[in-house]
Amino acid sequence: MQTTTIHLVRHGKVENPEHVIYERLPDYHLSERGERMAEATAQYMAANRHMSDAVALFSSPLDRTMETAAHVRDALNERRAAAEVAGNGEQGETLSLLGITQDERLIEAGNEFRGRRIGYGAGALWRPSNLRLLLRPMKPSWGESYASIAERMTDFAFEKADEFAGKAIIVVSHESPIWTLRTKLVTGKAESNVLKRKTALASVTSLVLEVGTHKLVAVSYMDPAANVE
Questions:
Q1: Most buried by CB count within 10 Å: which residue of 91, 97, 158, 184?
Q2: CA dist., res. 188 & res. 179, Å (int)
Q3: pLDDT tens digits, one per residue of 164-199
């Protein structure tokens, strides 16, 4: 049985002092802490052979994910360059330096609260005009459906599982897409309870898929930036 491993990385903490739901809005970058979180996860991945041997790096096109992906790229490429200088490549396959490939399928979930401040002013959840957006939390009614997210994420994952058969790739995305993909593969259903998500900032969710059948063989989760202040 041939498998492909997809390491899904959530971006680091975003600079957002106004507590805005930034969704897909531009110019929301990693905060200083977010940069440290991304770097901690990048160094963790560079030190883990199963992750550092990844043959491709993909990212959502948004600023926060591209910045997180840049930390991962730089850490893995530094390790590869050092190994080449040391001559370690003679013991096995020499890995090429990674670039970052953007893919729209990895983008943040659409959200009708974009640009609003949850808990503040007119954008608060408790405002009567917003109640219609909260009627079906399992779909959800406030934005892109989990079914839609699952469709684009599984389309990406299955395509890459076959394209990079027997290898590992790294994918930097967002909380909802990562968790929805995991839920779909584990349970067969896209719907999920947002309160039960396990996708911390800069965390790594690793999915092992069988090539061809796309059956989920294994799943693991790590939170390398948990103690970053």
A1: 184
A2: 13
A3: 999 999 999 999 999 999 999 999 998 777 778 899
**Contact of 71 with 41, CB cutoff 8 Å:** yes
Domain membership of residue 229 (yes or no) is no
Residue 199 has a CB neighbour count (10 Å cut-off) of 21
Q: Angle 153-206-108 (CA atoms, 0-180°, nearest 5)?
A: 35
Kindly report the CATH number assigned to the domain that includes residue 36. Answer: 3.40.50.1240
Residues composing the chain: 229
Q: Report if residue 209 sits inside a domain.
A: yes
- Spatial strand order of the sheet with 101-102 comes to 101-102, 56-59, 168-173, 3-10, 204-210, 216-222
| φ, ψ of residue 213 in degrees (nearest 5) | -80, -25
Contact 172, 54 (CB under 8 A): no
Domain of residue 96: give its range. 3-222
**Of 145, 153, 158, whose CA–CA distance to 191 is shortest?**
145
CB 25 within 8 A of CB 12: no
Number of domains in the chain: 1
pTM of the complete model beyond 0.85: yes
